[in-house]
Specification:
The complex is a heterodimer of chains A (440) and B (310).
Chain A lengths: L1 H34 L2 H4 L9 E7 L3 H18 L3 E7 L5 H10 L6 E5 L3 H7 L11 H7 L2 H5 L2 E2 L2 E2 L2 E6 L2 E5 H6 L9 H13 L4 E4 L6 H10 L19 H15 L14 H7 L2 E6 L2 H8 L6 H4 E4 L13 E7 L6 H11 L2 H11 L2 E2 L2 H4 L2 H4 L4 H8 L11 H16 L5 H18 L1
Parallel strand pairs in A: 1-2, 1-3, 8-9
Antiparallel strand pairs in A: 3-11, 4-5, 6-11, 6-12, 7-9, 7-10
Helix pairs in contact in A: 3-16, 10-11, 20-21
Chain B lengths: L2 H47 L18 H8 L1 H33 L6 H13 L2 H11 L7 H9 L13 H29 L3 H9 L4 H29 L3 H4 L13 H10 L4 H27 L5
Helix pairs in contact in B: 2-12, 3-7, 3-9, 3-11, 4-7, 7-9, 9-12, 11-12
The chains are: A alpha/beta (440), B mainly alpha (310).
Organism (chain A): Paraliobacillus quinghaiensis
Family (chain A): Belongs to the bacterial solute-binding protein 1 family.
Keywords (chain A): Signal, Transport
Chain lengths: 440, 310
C-alpha cells in the first residue's frame, strides 16, 4: 500500500511538472502578446473624440520597438483625432488567421502583409481599392515603381508598399581568399570558378541555394542565368517558363549540384546557411538585409560584417537579377475606420515616417527620398541592397501566385531529385501554372 | 393480458416521456445547440461547399460547379500520394499500436511488477503532451546532418550507417519518422484501455484454470484474449479512425514534403483550403474522406458485431 502511495505521488508530481511546463510556456506566450498591446493602456486618459485605427503588423522585436517609441507618438501627434492600436501578429499561420478574420468580419483596419499576398487577398475581395482613395496619386508619385506594382490587381491598386528588400550574395571572407579570390565574383563564370576552387579546398559546400521549396530561394540564380517565368504582361507561362533559356538556366544549376558545387542545403541538408557561412563550412549564400540586422544585434554571435564580403548576385546571361521581397500596407474592405486607416497608410509612406523606420530597423524604404537618407545609407550594408534593387525583379503579381509558386518549386525539386529531366519538369510546371492563371 | 390494458399503458408512457423531455430540455438545450452549430451545421455546410467554387468572403457569390471538385482530385498526383499514405499509415501503425498496447498492458498487469501506476502514467504522458511540441522534438531528433540526435547516435557514436541520413528529406525515411511519432503518441492510449480491461477480468477464472493445470500461455490464450475481445474491437476501430485522422504528425514534421510524397488527406485538405484558398475542392476531399472512414468502420462494426465471443 505504501508503495502504491509513493508511485501515485510520483505520477501526480510528474503530471504537475509537465502541466506547469506547458502552462508556463503558454503564459509566456500570452504575456508576450499582451505586451504588444501595451500601447492601449497608455491612452487611458484619452479624450472621447479619438477613433481607433486597428493595425496588424508583423515586425520583429527590434522593429516593433521603433513602432512603439517613435512611429506611434509621431503619428498621434500629427493626427490627434486617431489612436493607433498596434497588434503584433506571428508569421506562423498568419495567412490562416487573416482568412479567418476576414471571413468572420473581424479583420483589422489595416495590415502589413507580404507583397505576394496582396493580389491574392484582393482577388478574394478582402481588400479596399486604395487607388480610388483621396490623395493616392500623390502617394504613388513618391514611391518606387516596382514595389508599387506588387499591389496591382485587375488594373487597380490594393495597397501601398511599406518597405522593400532583396537578396545579395554573401561570401565567407576566409574561404573566398583561400580559393584565391580577393573580391566577390562578378559573373556566373567567376562564381563557378571560385566554387570549384573552394570545393578543391574541401569546404562542405560552395554555393548555397537556400532550397527548392519556394521560388524565392532559387529565383536569383534562375533569372541571372537567363531564365524567365512569364511574358511581360504576366498572362502566360508556356513558352517562357519552359523556354530554351529557362531550361538551360536550371540545367546549369543542376550541373553545379551534380558536381558538388551547390551544397546539400538545397534539399534540406545541414548545417543551415547562416551557421555554415559563420563557421566557414560554406563559401557563399544569398540573403536579405535581415541577415545582417538580426545577427548584428545578436550579442552571442559574431557580427557577420566582420567575416563576410558582399556583392551583387553574379551576372549571367540575364544580368544580375535578384528577387524583390517586402511588405505592403493594405486596408481591409470591411474596415471600421477606413478613413483613418488610409490616413495612416499615407503617412507611413511619407519621407519622415519612412526615414524613422529605415534608420531604426534597416528596412529599405519604398519612398524615393527616404531611400537617399544619409543616416540610413550609413548602415554598412544598405548601399549594397539599394544597388541590387535597381536590377532586381518582382515575382509575378498574380492572385494564384502562391499555388503557382508551389507548382514551379515542386517540379524544380523533381529535377534535383533526379525524377524528371529539366525540359519535362518545366513543361509540366508551365502547363499547370497556366491552368491556375486561367482559372481566375 | 388483453389489448385494452396495453393501450393506456402506452399512452401514459408517451405522456410521461413528453413530461420527462420537458424536464430535461433546459439541461440538454445548450448541448443540442452546441452540437447543431458546431457539428451538424458544419457537416452539411461542408457537403454543400464541396459542390461549389466557394468564396470565403461574407456575401460573395459561390457558383455551383457540380462534381468538378470531386473529379479534379483524381487527376492530381498529390491526391494519390495522400490516399496512399493515409492507407499506409493505417496498415502500418494500427497493428503495431494494437500489439504494443496489449503487450505492455499485460506486462504491467503482471503480479510481480511494481509501480504499476507510475508505468501507466509514463505511457500516458505522450498522449497529453502537445502535438506541436512533440512534432518539433521529432524534427530535431531526426534533423539531417550529424547535428540531429538520431544521426549523431547512429553515425558519430555507433557508426552503423555510412553517412548521416537526411531523414525528413527522403520519402521513406520521412514516413518512418511520421509513423514512429504516431505510434509513440498513441500506444499509451491502447495500453490504458487494455489495462482497464485486464483488471476487469475476474481473478477466479485464472485461479480455476490454474487449479486445472493451465500454464501462463494457456491462461493468456484461453482466458485473457477472449475476455478482452469486445475491448479489442473498440480499440481497433478507434485506432483505425485515429490513423485516418493523421494530421499534425505530417503537417508539422514534413509539411507533406518532399514533393508531396508524405502528404496525407488531412494535410492536403488543410493546404488546399488555407494556403490555396480552394475551399470547395478542400471540402470535396473532406467529404470523400468522411465517407471512406464511415464505410470502413461501419462495415467492420457490422462484421464483427455478428460474431459471438464466448
Amino acid at each position: 500500500m505504501k508503495k502504491l502511495k509513493y508511485s501515485l505521488l510520483f505520477s501526480v508530481l510528474l503530471i504537475l511538472t509537465l502541466v506547469s511546463v506547458a502552462c508556463s510556456s503558454d503564459t509566456e506566450g500570452t504575456a508576450n502578446s499582451s505586451d504588444t498591446n501595451q500601447g492601449d493602456d497608455s491612452n487611458n486618459s484619452k479624450n472621447v473624440e479619438k477613433t481607433e485605427i486597428d493595425y496588424w503588423h508583423t515586425y520583429g522585436e527590434q522593429e516593433e520597438a521603433v513602432l512603439f517609441e517613435e512611429i506611434k507618438p509621431a503619428f498621434e501627434e500629427e493626427f490627434p483625432q486617431y489612436e493607433l492600436k498596434l497588434t503584433r501578429q506571428p508569421l506562423e499561420g498568419l495567412k490562416q488567421q487573416v482568412i479567418a478574420a476576414v471571413s468572420g468580419g473581424v479583420a483589422p483596419d489595416l495590415m502589413r502583409m507580404d507583397i505576394i499576398w496582396t493580389p491574392e487577398f484582393a482577388a478574394l475581395g478582402a481588400l479596399a481599392e486604395v487607388s480610388a482613395m483621396k490623395g493616392f496619386d500623390e502617394v504613388k508619385e513618391r514611391l518606387y515603381e516596382s514595389p508599387m506594382k506588387t499591389n496591382i490587381y485587375e488594373g487597380a491598386y490594393y495597397g501601398v508598399p511599406l518597405n522593400t528588400n532583396t537578396k545579395i550574395s554573401v561570401y565567407n571572407k576566409e574561404v573566398l581568399e583561400a580559393a584565391g579570390f580577393s573580391e566577390p565574383p562578378k559573373t556566373m563564370e567567376e562564381l563557378e570558378e571560385v566554387a570549384q576552387a573552394a570545393v578543391a579546398n574541401d569546404v562542405k559546400g560552395a554555393i548555397n541555394v537556400m532550397g527548392v521549396g519556394k521560388t524565392w530561394d532559387f529565383l536569383p540564380y534562375f533569372w541571372s542565368l537567363g531564365g524567365t517565368l512569364t511574358n511581360d504582361d504576366v498572362t502566360q507561362f508556356e513558352g517562357y517558363l519552359n523556354s530554351d533559356e529557362s531550361v538551360e538556366a536550371i540545367e546549369t544549376l543542376y550541373g553545379w549540384y551534380k558536381d558538388g558545387l551547390i551544397s546539400e542545403t538545397l534539399l534540406g541538408g545541414r548545417p543551415g546557411t547562416w551557421e555554415g557561412i559563420e563557421t566557414g563550412e560554406y563559401l557563399a549564400i544569398d540573403d536579405g538585409p535581415w541577415y545582417f540586422s538580426i545577427l548584428g544585434k545578436d550579442q552571442s554571435k559574431p557580427d557577420p560584417l566582420d567575416y563576410t564580403v558582399r556583392g551583387n548576385i553574379p551576372e549571367g546571361e540575364g544580368g544580375s537579377r535578384s528577387v524583390i521581397g517586402g511588405e505592403n500596407l493594405v486596408v481591409f474592405k470591411n474596415a471600421e475606420n477606413k478613413e483613418g486607416a488610409w490616413t495612416f497608410a499615407k503617412w507611413m509612406t511619407s519621407e519622415n515616417a519612412q526615414e524613422i523606420m529605415a534608420r531604426g530597423t534597416g528596412l529599405i524604404p519604398t519612398n524615393k527620398d527616404a531611400a537617399q537618407d544619409e543616416q540610413f545609407l550609413e548602415l554598412p550594408y544598405a548601399n549594397e541592397y539599394v544597388e541590387q534593387l535597381e536590377t532586381a525583379l518582382p515575382r509575378p503579381t498574380l492572385p494564384g501566385w502562391s499555388e503557382i509558386d508551389r507548382i514551379i518549386s515542386l517540379n524544380v525539386e523533381k529535377v534535383f531529385r533526379g525524377e524528371l529531366d529539366v525540359q519535362e519538369a518545366l513543361d509540366i510546371a508551365a502547363k499547370e501554372a497556366d491552368e491556375v492563371l486561367n482559372e481566375e | 393480458m388483453s389489448e385494452s390494458t396495453i393501450q393506456p399503458k402506452k399512452k401514459v408512457g408517451f405522456k410521461k416521456g413528453l413530461k420527462q423531455w420537458k424536464e430535461v430540455l433546459p439541461f440538454l438545450i445548450l448541448g443540442l445547440i452546441g452540437t447543431g452549430v458546431f457539428v451538424i451545421f458544419p457537416l452539411f455546410k461542408g457537403i454543400v461547399m464541396s459542390f461549389q467554387d466557394y468564396s470565403i468572403m461574407p456575401g460573395a457569390e459561390s457558383p455551383w460547379v457540380g462534381l468538378e471538385n470531386y473529379l479534379k482530385a483524381f487527376e492530381e498526383e498529390q491526391f494519390r500520394y495522400a490516399v496512399r499514405n493515409t492507407l499506409l499509415n493505417t496498415i502500418v501503425t494500427v497493428p503495431i499500436n494494437w500489439f504494443l498496447g496489449l503487450f505492455f498492458a499485460v506486462l504491467i498487469n503482471l503480479n510481480f511488477i511494481k509501480f504499476k501506476i507510475t508505468f501507466r502514467t509514463l505511457y500516458y504522458v505522450p498522449i497529453i503532451t502537445s502535438w506541436i511540441v512533440v512534432s518539433f522534438l521529432f524534427r530535431y531528433l531526426f534533423a539531417s546532418g550529424d547535428g540531429g540526435l538520431v544521426n549523431y547516435l547512429l553515425y558519430t557514436q555507433l557508426g552503423v550507417i555510412d553517412e548521416p541520413i537526411n531523414w525528413l528529406g527522403n520519402q521513406w525515411t520521412a514516413m518512418l519518422v511520421i509513423w514512429s511519432l504516431h505510434i509513440w503518441k498513441t500506444v499509451g492510449w491502447a495500453l490504458v484501455i487494455y489495462l482497464a480491461a485486464l483488471q476487469g477480468i475476474p481473478k477466479s477464472l485464472y485461479e480455476a484454470a490454474e487449479i486445472d493445470g493451465a500454464n501462463a500461455i494457456q491462461l493468456f490464450r484461453h482466458i485473457t484474449i477472449p475476455m478482452v475481445t469486445p475491448i479489442s474491437i473498440f480499440v481497433i476501430i478507434q485506432l483505425v479512425m485515429g490513423a485516418f485522422n493523421i494530421f499534425p504528425q505530417v503537417y508539422f514534421v514534413t509539411g507533406g514534403g518532399p514533393m508531396h510524397q508524405t502528404e496525407v488527406l488531412q494535410s492536403m485538405i488543410y493546404t488546399q483550403a488555407f494556403e490555396n484558398f480552394n475551399f470547395g475542392y478542400s471540402s470535396a476531399l473532406g467529404v470523400m474522406m468522411g465517407i471512406a472512414v464511415f464505410l470502413l468502420t461501419w462495415s467492420q462494426q457490422k462484421k464483427i458485431g455478428k460474431q459471438k465471443f464466448y
